[in-house]
């Protein structure tokens, strides 16, 4: 069976490689704008499904993995900052607060799809403006939901992480992904 990762994220590519399955990578062309009033969990799932569906159209017969992550700050979605000032603003907003990261995955072939959404709760410690600026300058986390990299220096920003799947916070919940791939017929130990 052919497997395609519908993402150009290097983080998702590295995570999926851990499962030891051969896969191709394709860029999904999907508008990631939230719909008015859309919850972060619904947005993450809708985008994961849309990415899988878009890539599946170009790869008939292949199983496609789509994934998306949205930071949920009091019901408001936070995506990728895209730049320094927005990253600083996001981290200031999350300082001394708990944020839930909704990471969705969709495994699709044609009209058959299996989906899951992981919720990882991150408690940020109180952060000074100087700490935030030093962190942003050091890691430049502009391509990450919430403007941090937990697999890097971003871990120093937290008091705690509460999760059932530590890979979800990096961008692809491997426990759920492995379960969905097994449901699709892939053999994983």
UniProtKB/TrEMBL annotation:
Q: Which Pfam families match?
A: Maf
SUPFAM superfamilies with a match to the protein in the record: ITPase-like
According to UniProt, the reaction catalysed is: N(7)-methyl-GTP + H2O = N(7)-methyl-GMP + diphosphate + H(+)
Enzyme class at the top of the EC tree: hydrolase
Q: Which Gene3D superfamilies match?
A: 3.90.950.10
- Tell whether Membrane is among the UniProt keywords: no
Which chain positions carry the site (Important for substrate specificity)?
A: 11, 69, 151
**EC number from the UniProt entry:** 3.6.1.-
Is Magnesium among this UniProt entry's keywords?
no
Where located? Cytoplasm
| Necessary cofactors | a divalent metal cation
Tell me the active site: 68 (proton acceptor)
- Tell me where the signal peptide lies: none
Q: Which InterPro entries match?
A: ITPase-like_fam, Maf-like
- Alphabetically ordered keywords of this record: Cytoplasm, Hydrolase, Nucleotide metabolism
Q: Member of which family?
A: Belongs to the Maf family. YceF subfamily.
Against NCBIfam families, the record matches this protein to:
maf (TIGR00172)
Question: What does this protein's UniProt record list under function?
Answer: Nucleoside triphosphate pyrophosphatase that hydrolyzes 7-methyl-GTP (m(7)GTP). May have a dual role in cell division arrest and in preventing the incorporation of modified nucleotides into cellular nucleic acids.
The protein in question is named 7-methyl-GTP pyrophosphatase
Q: Which organism is it from?
A: Noviluteimonas caseinilytica
Q: What's the source species' lineage?
A: Bacteria, Pseudomonadati, Pseudomonadota, Gammaproteobacteria, Lysobacterales
């Amino acid at each position: 069976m052919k497997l395609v990762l519908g993402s150009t994220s290097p983080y998702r590519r590295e995570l999926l490689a851990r499962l030891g399955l051969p896969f191709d990578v394709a860029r999904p062309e999907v508008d990631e704008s939230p719909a008015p009033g859309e919850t972060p969990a619904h947005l993450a799932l809708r985008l994961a499904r849309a990415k899988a569906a878009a890539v599946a159209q170009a790869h008939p017969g292949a199983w496609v993995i789509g994934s998306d992550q949205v930071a949920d700050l009091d019901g408001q979605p936070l995506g990728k900052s895209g730049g320094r000032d927005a990253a600083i603003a996001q981290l200031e907003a999350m300082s001394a607060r708990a944020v839930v990261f909704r990471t969705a995955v969709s495994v699709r072939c044609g009209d058959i799809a299996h989906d899951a959404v992981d919720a990882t709760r991150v408690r940020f410690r109180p952060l000074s403006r100087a700490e935030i600026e030093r962190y942003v300058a050091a890691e430049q986390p502009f391509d990450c939901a919430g403007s941090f990299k937990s697999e890097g220096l971003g871990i120093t920003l937290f008091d705690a992480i509460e999760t059932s799947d530590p890979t979800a916070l990096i961008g692809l919940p491997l426990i759920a992904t492995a379960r969905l791939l097994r449901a699709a017929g892939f053999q994983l130990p």
